[in-house]
Design a protein that fits this description.
By secondary structure, the chain is mainly alpha-helical. The protein has one domain (2-98). Helices cover 57% and strands 11% of the residues. The protein has helices at residues 2-31, 43-49, 56-75; strands at residues 41-42, 88-92, 95-98. Residues 1-100 form the Protein kinase domain. One of its GO terms (molecular function) is ATP binding.
Length: 100
């Protein structure tokens, strides 16, 4: 029984690291892209429409919020299987939400 729990935990950690790696790549791409004009948009729109690059501080803030949110979900046994720029909502200049 304990062996199964350890295997499950390892698999969850592996999936979590893969998701974070993919997410970080997407957010780094957003740093070199454009911002949305609407008061609330997703990260894909931000990357597509922004006319100037996001600052390193903005991107770092978004990454921290996303990682904290994912860690919170994973601690409670939930996993998001469709992480992509379009699933993250930029609610304001400094607030990110994950669309579930």
């Amino acid at each position: 029984m304990e062996r199964e729990d350890e295997d499950t935990t390892r698999e969850r950690r592996r999936l979590f690291r893969r998701a974070l790696s993919s997410l970080l790549g997407s957010i780094e791409a957003a740093a070199a892209a454009r911002a949305c004009r609407a008061p609330e948009c997703n990260l894909y729109q931000l990357m597509k429409d922004r006319e100037k690059m996001s600052s390193e501080g903005e991107v770092r803030n978004w990454c921290i919020q996303v990682f904290q949110g994912l860690a919170y979900m994973h601690q409670r046994g939930y996993f998001h299987r469709d992480l992509k720029p379009g699933t993250f909502i930029i609610a304001s200049e400094s607030f990110v939400k994950c669309a579930i």
